[in-house]
Specification:
This protein is of the alpha+beta class. 50% of the residues lie in helices and 7% in strands.
Amino acid sequence: MKLIIGNKNYSSWSLRPWLLLRAAGIEFEEVLIPLYREDSKARQLAYSPAGKVPALIDGEITVWDSLAIVEYLAEKFPDRGIWPRDPAARTRARSICAEMHSGFPALRNSMPMNLRGRHPGCGRTPETLADIARIVAVWEDCRAYFGAGGAFLFGAFCAADVFYAPVVTRFVTYDVQLPPTAAAYRDAVLALSALREWTAAGATEPERIAMSELYA
């Protein structure tokens, strides 16, 4: 399989399937296309009809969009625990992934993912603070009802943690203070060896994307 991704420092959408593949021990080839260059769109179109990253190529099959990639991997590797086994937990996990996939626009706009950046206090609009409060409520609810047996939202690491991993990095970049349960979950995600690997690679990238450097 090949996974087509964008800049590791900035591309939250690319991080999700990459982190899932690495954490689940699924072998793949990484193809990184730097974003917002003159040839970026053409290079992306060579892999995906949407002309965007991420995209997964598995033989004759092409899957694009991070949520579709996760679902494809869950079907292909049913033994890797990509979704929780318990039906109630699995339904909740899918719901909060869909909520992240389509929501939280204020957080995305005011606190773009930027692993190298450190901008404490920035981006705190009322709308962004409301998004943060909702995310904290999601984390606390999942940990309370489904988190037994592990440090992640549903105990064991799963797709839900993949979808919220970029938010974890944002909370570091913008120094968002969290209550104890949410802070413990943040720390568990940050300790993942796969996320540390991604972050270290992002730190070495030379590109600077202006829309993600709002407070530079």
